[in-house]
What we know:
The complex is a heterodimer of chains A (253) and B (246).
Chain A: H1 2-16, H2 19-22, H3 24-40, E1 47-48, E2 51-52, H4 53-84, H5 87-91, H6 97-127, H7 134-158, H8 162-178, H9 195-201, H10 203-216, H11 220-247
Antiparallel strand pairs in A: 1-2
Helix pairs in contact in A: 1-6, 3-4, 3-6, 4-6, 4-7, 4-8, 4-10, 6-7, 6-11, 7-11, 10-11
Chain B: E1 6-15, E2 18-28, E3 33-37, H1 44-51, E4 59-64, E5 67-68, H2 73-79, E6 80-83, H3 96-106, H4 111-124, H5 140-152, E7 158-162, H6 170-185, E8 189-194, H7 197-203, E9 206-211, E10 214-219, H8 221-227, H9 233-245
Parallel strand pairs in B: 3-8, 3-9, 6-7, 7-8
Antiparallel strand pairs in B: 1-2, 1-4, 4-5, 9-10
Helix pairs in contact in B: 3-4
Amino acid sequence: MIGFLTLSKREVVRFLKDAIDTIAPPTISVILFLLIFGVGLGSRLGDVHGVPYIQFMTPGLLLLAIVRNAFLNPAYSLFQSRWYGNIADFLVSPLSAEQIALAVLLGGVARGMIVGALVLAAAWLVTGVSVAQPTWALGYALAVAVAFAGLGCIVGLWTRGWEGVGAIDTFVLDPLVMLGGVFYSLDMVRGVPIIEPLSALNPFTYITEGFRAAMLGGAEAHVLIGLVLTLALGTICIGAALVLFRVGYHLKA
Amino acid sequence: MRTPAIFIEHLHKSYGDLVAVDDLSLEIQRGEFFGLLGPNGAGKTTTINAIVGLVKPTSGHITVLGLDAVRDYRRVHRLVGIAFQELILDGSFLNVREILVYQAGYFGIPPRRARAKADELLERFGLWEKRSARVQELSGGQKRRLVLAKALIHDPEIVILDEPTAGADVEMRLQLWEMLQQLHAQGKTILLTTHYLEEAERLCQRVGILHHGRLVSLGSPEELARERGQAHLEDVFLELIRSEQA
């Protein structure tokens, strides 16, 4: 247990010691989104689903911050350790493959939740948004962080170069999230070519809608559908990450 | 009969068509100072990496103090400390002392004991003044000593050193030899790979010479020299390698 806790601590200390590069930029970029799209353009849109647009987009932006940071931390940490060779420090220790995987995953969850908390605090200051169902919203945010930290573990093991993590971030996560209802609901894009079908097919749309319902108060069915999708994604990602760690994929020759 | 420290039986490792280790069988006794010699690409690093589970054998098997190196890898790792040839140090955000404290933690040593053990090793290896420094601020010799300290943080019974004096100047090499002799005197089993035959002759009780992944000679440096009618291990080594290449 001490070994597992030590590695978990390392994964958290790694990004906290470099908070200017890891915590500050995503928090600031989401605050800019809030100010430009919410306060600026949003004020001309009026209410969306009964709430001001800036409050409507807050859950999506919060999710965006959690997803990206939960993903990036394990992806970069694992690849960095592979690149510099210090992954051997863990691999020659008595830590099991599962303990290593879980500790790296926890680092991602911690970063996702810390950035999420900072973004929520900023959103509260800017928009006065409050959380309607705190327990559901927190559980939901945790489930999303775990799922995408699992994806980060897979990418951190899979990639052969630094650009691999960036490529997944740009070509997979960005479209998934941007076309996943962060800035709009499915109702708002009815009949819009390309955007509507892509959004309707995108599972992240239902994850965002569920989180929005948990945060702003909304249909329970939305919360449950999104949560089920998140848990399914998390199960697949963590399962795959554990298999890769067990077989020593890109870890053992 | 005592269980050997390391028992390697018909180890074979290939990467596609490249055979790195070819049917290697070897027994290293407890408390022995053993040297694994060979030219570049002979299979030395592959062999020691297989012992600690960083290389998956294609076939054959390895036991460490009677424990299967694959099945019981977690218990095996408690018994073995390894200092890699590359100066691998988790220095992107940890200082010298933290590197040792974290490494102790991975081995399940509680924080207070980990800090005490780290401080003891920093003193012993002449790194106390550098305890708050970043790895990038260390000289090559200091990094080499830190790598060795890291391998010893959990007080392993078996110490594996992959080319521990590579790139070291004469003074540092002598210091490292003295440290290794002290470890051996404490009862540790030591497996050393080296290119320096003088080093092997001076430190090792027995040596194994690998060439193209095969064990081509095994015995004490004196025995090997006597059998081949040579004065030094270096002459034996060169004769063996040349005869293998012929």
